[in-house]
Every structure is written in structure tokens, then in C-alpha cells.
Design the sequence.
């Protein structure tokens, strides 16, 4: 009797798991499907256009992308985006670590500061773009991707990095630092020898948020990039003229780049995590 | 920093084991370990003021300035506010934006809740939970402009969805309402932002103590009862955070509306962008201010909603 009830429950659980599994599968198709269709269509033949069915296989649109004259300054834009993302990555990792360390203790104004940091996620990018571009005009400075662009990118990435570092320090064992202090180490030594090695995986994660979010950022940069575009701005400019399969190829290239950055991060992260634990 | 209070000394010497207060205060100030908070915070605080606080204040300032074809002139006028309220375009655009934001948010929650439930309560091992969760999070780290473009081959007149529907005999002629419509916009926004609410819901569902669910089941509660009386109320904070994320992101969204909406109808984001492009900054600023007010009301409303439910 008891055994039959047990098997019935197991059967039911198996059913539940299968149904949820199928739903998860459909969901993954929904969030990845359009992108995969785009990847496939970027290899469409020269006569083929934006839609299925494919008219054959070719690298025509990829060649169009790499050809120097065809799409303006795509390579330059991509290079600028990568450089900007790298700078944002370093600043995000540094600032969020410093902030999270300060937030381990209560200090004057910590509440206001916390909400100000979080406002960076909440404020629509176009607002920040509008406000800062006008402010610069009145002050007499001209916007540039490495200056005003960098400024608003960090505003966008900092909250994410900060939350990651807060989570890291929440689970941090402060007695290790205490022990080092009791043995006579000064603050710098404690940080370098004890704290930093333990939080490195978190710092790398905060940096990843900085890199990927900045690399793809569009709305915040619209009025702030100055004379030279970043990649998302170039994509948007090309798109507003006409959507062509070249854009699909560019989208594929850009996505593959983003994904390989995440892959690289996962490798570095696992390596660091294994070393510290 | 909290002072640790020792229990009353039980020994023979007396109960005055704690040092007099003035000495303790002194000691705490002197031996407060770690770097000084001021130095750690200063660079970020300056950055936040320069690139976040000042620009936002400046939007309010220029909303009162005069506008002429030659540019902005500092001054004080309520003209743009009066126009905002007298012309129906602006409030109508704001209402449209609120409406589709709300629809998209509801669909996102319905779509994502089972996923979060599956990850948190059906999948058993931590390793699988995390891997399946990360798969859902991958789109968050790719360009949303490109993900928006990817909807064109799906929804276009000769797009995949039309092809499939014709093949199955659901429709005879390709439907034109698919792309450049509110339907397309809702679909695309859902796909772009649904991943944002999975995270918070997943974490709050995963925090539920499994023993409570076991106990309820042992006492004869049905699955529906367990869900309605235990799981759903305990997951509401996560649902609320997810709602706030999606609400705030979609309210300020404008790129997707351009790509997938085809510029056929305007949302507040595109309106601001248009006025900024034609150098009518005061009008853009007034629209921006009301967008922010709308967002704040929405966020407060969501927080109230969950608090009220918690009381029940």
C-alpha cells in the first residue's frame, strides 16, 4: 500500500518535471530564437534578403561587413567600443570594491549614497543623455566618447558591480582580517594579503558587468559620444537608413564577441575561485 | 558600530566587569579598523554628482528656459508646462507608454514565474539550477539593439511567423499587423526584458524553507493550497522587484519602439529623442520630467501593492 503510494508520487513528480522542462525549453527558444534566425540569415545568398527561406549559402554579407568602404567606420566604432568597455570595466571594478568596503560599516550619508547609486539603474538613458549634453553645452565643453560617454557608462554599470561586491562582503569572514591585524599587519598589508585574494572572483564579476553593459550601451551614449560613434550608435545609424543582412552579420559578430567575453570570464572566474577555496 | 554588551559578571569580584563608558568610546574611535570610509567613497561620490545628479537637476532647470529657433535662452517661463497640459499629444503619449508597459510587465511575469518556480523548486541540484539560470541570463549580456533587429525576420510581412501561419492554413494572406505595431513592440519588449524578472523571483523562491512546504504537505494541504498560501506570498518580494525592474526599463525605452514599432506610434522615449534631435531641449525636458514622475508613481504603487498583500 505504502509502496504503491510512493511510486504514484514519484510518477507524478516525474510528470511535473517533464512539463516544466518542456516549458523551459520553449522559453529558451523564445529568448534565443530570433537571434539564431538572424545568425542563419547572415549567411544568406547575395540575392536573398532579410527573410526566410534562404536563397542559398554565401559569405557575401560578411564580406560586405569586412570590406573597408562599405559600412563607414564600423571597425573604428568597434575598436572604440572595446576600448571604452575596458576602461569602464576597470573603473567599475575599482569603484564598486571601494564602495562595498566603505559600506561594511555605517557611515554618515550611507543611505543617501546607496539610493543615489541605485538611481543609475532607474534613470532612463535618454534622460541622462539629454541632461548631461545640455549641461556640457552651457559649460562650454564638447562631448566625447572617452569623456562624457565614459561618465554615463559608469553610472549605468556601477550599481550592478556594487551589488555584486555587497553580496561578496555579506558572506565575507572578517575574523581573518582581525587575525592579521592582531598579528601586527597594517591596513594595506591586510588588504593586499588577506582581503583582496578572497574577493578577487567578485571583483572580476563586477568588471564583467562593467565590460558587457558598456559594450552594448546605446541610449545613454546617443547625445554624448561626440564626433566619433561607438558601435551601438553606428548600428542604430545603419539601421535607420535601411536594415540589410550586413546588419545581421554585424549583429552575429558582436554577439559572438560578447559571448566569448562571458566564456573567457567563466574560465578566469573558475580558476580564481578554485585558487581561493 | 555597536558596542558589545557583556553579560553581568557572575564572579566574586563584582558585576562591574565592563570598563567605564568614556574609556570605551575613546577606544572605539581610535581602533576602528579598515580604511576610512570618506576616502573609499569620495571618487564614486564625485563621479555620481558630476554625471548623474547634476544632469538630472539641469533637466529641471532647462524645462523653465525660453526656447527660440536660435536655441535655448536662460530665463523663467512656464510656457512648456502649460503646453504640456493644454495639448493632448503629450498626456496621450504618456498614457500609451504606461499602457503597453503595463501589458508587457504582466505578460513577462506570467511567462517568467513558472521558469523561476522550475529553477528554484523543481530542479534539485545546485549545479543544474545555476547552469539553467545562467542560460536564461545570457541575453542580458548581449546588445539589445541587435536583439530588437532580430525580430524583423520573424515578424515581417514575409517573416517566419507569417510563413508558419500560412503553411498551417491559419491565414491565407500574410498578416501585416505583425511588424510595426503594438503587438510587435510588446513581443519584442517581452523577449528583451523578461530575463530581468527571472533573477529576483528565482532568488526569493529559492530562499523558501523547504521544510515549511514538507510540513504543509504532511498535514494534508493540497498542491494548490501550498502554492496559494505559502509559496506565492513568500515569493512576492521577488515578484515586486522584478516588476520594478521591468516597469522602469520599459518606461524609458525608445530604441525598440523605433526598430520594431517602425516609428508608427510615439512613446515618451521617442518623443524626447525627437525634441532633442530638433534642439527643442526645454520641451524634451518637460516630457522627461513627467516620464520620471510617472515612473515614480508606478514604483510606489508596486511597492504598496506588495505591502498590502503581505498584510493579508
Sequence:
Amino acid at each position: 500500500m505504502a509502496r504503491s503510494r510512493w511510486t504514484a508520487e514519484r510518477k507524478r513528480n516525474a510528470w511535473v518535471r517533464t512539463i516544466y522542462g518542456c516549458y523551459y525549453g520553449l522559453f529558451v527558444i523564445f529568448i534565443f530564437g530570433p537571434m539564431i534566425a538572424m545568425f542563419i540569415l547572415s549567411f544568406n545568398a547575395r540575392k536573398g534578403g532579410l527573410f526566410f527561406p534562404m536563397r542559398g549559402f554565401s559569405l557575401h554579407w560578411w564580406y560586405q561587413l569586412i570590406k573597408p568602404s562599405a559600412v563607414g567606420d564600423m571597425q573604428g566604432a568597434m575598436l572604440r567600443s572595446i576600448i571604452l568597455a575596458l576602461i569602464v570595466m576597470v573603473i567599475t571594478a575599482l569603484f564598486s570594491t571601494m564602495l562595498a568596503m566603505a559600506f561594511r560599516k555605517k557611515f554618515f550619508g550611507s543611505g543617501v549614497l546607496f539610493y543615489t547609486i541605485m538611481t543609475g539603474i532607474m534613470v532612463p538613458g535618454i534622460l541622462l543623455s539629454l541632461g548631461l549634453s545640455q549641461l556640457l553645452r552651457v559649460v562650454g565643453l564638447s562631448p566625447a566618447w572617452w569623456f562624457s560617454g565614459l561618465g554615463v557608462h559608469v553610472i549605468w554599470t556601477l550599481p550592478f558591480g556594487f551589488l555584486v561586491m555587497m553580496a561578496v562582503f555579506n558572506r565575507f569572514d572578517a575574523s581573518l582580517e582581525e587575525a592579521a591585524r592582531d598579528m601586527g599587519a597594517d591596513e594595506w598589508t591586510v588588504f593586499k594579503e588577506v582581503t583582496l585574494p578572497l574577493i578577487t572572483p567578485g571583483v572580476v564579476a563586477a568588471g564583467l558587468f562593467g565590460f558587457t553593459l558598456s559594450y552594448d550601451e546605446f541610449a545613454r551614449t546617443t547625445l554624448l559620444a561626440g564626433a566619433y560613434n561607438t558601435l551601438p550608435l553606428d548600428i542604430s545609424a545603419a539601421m535607420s537608413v535601411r536594415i540589410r543582412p550586413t546588419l545581421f552579420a554585424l549583429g552575429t559578430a558582436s554577439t559572438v564577441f560578447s559571448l566569448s567575453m562571458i566564456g573567457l570570464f567563466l574560465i578566469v572566474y573558475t580558476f580564481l575561485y578554485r585558487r581561493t577555496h | 558600530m555597536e558596542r558589545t554588551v557583556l553579560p553581568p559578571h557572575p564572579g566574586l569580584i563584582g558585576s562591574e566587569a565592563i570598563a567605564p563608558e568614556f574609556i570605551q568610546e575613546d577606544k572605539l574611535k581610535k581602533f576602528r579598523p579598515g580604511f576610512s570610509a570618506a576616502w573609499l567613497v569620495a571618487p564614486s561620490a564625485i563621479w555620481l554628482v558630476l554625471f548623474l545628479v547634476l544632469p538630472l537637476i539641469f533637466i529641471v532647470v532647462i524645462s523653465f528656459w525660453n526656447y527660440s529657433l536660435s536655441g535655448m535662452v536662460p530665463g523663467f517661463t512656464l510656457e512648456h508646462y502649460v503646453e504640456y497640459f493644454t495639448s493632448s499629444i503629450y498626456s496621450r503619449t504618456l498614457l500609451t507608454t504606461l499602457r503597453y508597459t503595463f501589458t508587457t510587465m504582466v505578460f513577462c511575469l506570467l511567462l517568467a514565474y513558472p521558469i523561476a518556480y522550475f529553477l528554484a523548486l523543481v530542479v534539485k541540484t545546485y549545479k543544474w539550477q545555476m547552469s539553467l539560470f545562467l542560460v536564461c541570463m545570457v541575453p542580458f549580456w548581449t546588445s539589445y539593439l541587435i536583439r530588437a533587429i532580430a525580430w524583423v525576420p520573424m515578424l515581417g510581412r514575409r517573416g517566419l511567423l507569417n510563413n508558419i501561419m500560412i503553411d498551417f492554413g491559419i491565414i491565407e494572406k500574410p498578416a501585416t499587423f505583425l511588424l510595426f505595431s503594438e503587438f510587435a513592440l510588446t513581443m519584442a519588449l517581452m523577449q528583451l526584458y523578461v530575463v530581468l524578472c527571472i533573477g529576483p523571483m528565482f532568488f526569493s523562491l529559492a530562499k523558501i524553507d523547504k521544510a515549511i512546504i514538507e510540513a504543509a504537505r504532511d498535514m494534508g494541504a493540497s498542491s494548490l493550497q501550498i502554492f496559494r498560501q505559502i509559496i506565492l506570498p513568500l515569493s512576492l518580494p521577488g515578484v515586486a522587484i522584478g516588476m520594478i525592474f521591468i516597469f522602469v526599463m520599459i518606461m524609458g525605452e525608445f530604441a525598440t519602439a523605433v526598430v520594431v514599432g517602425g516609428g508608427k506610434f510615439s512613446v515618451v522615449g521617442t518623443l524626447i529623442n525627437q525634441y532633442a534631435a530638433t534642439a527643442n531641449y526645454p520641451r524634451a525636458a518637460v516630457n522627461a520630467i513627467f516620464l520620471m514622475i510617472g515612473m515614480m508613481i508606478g514604483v510606489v504603487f508596486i511597492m504598496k501593492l506588495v505591502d498590502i498583500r503581505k498584510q493579508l
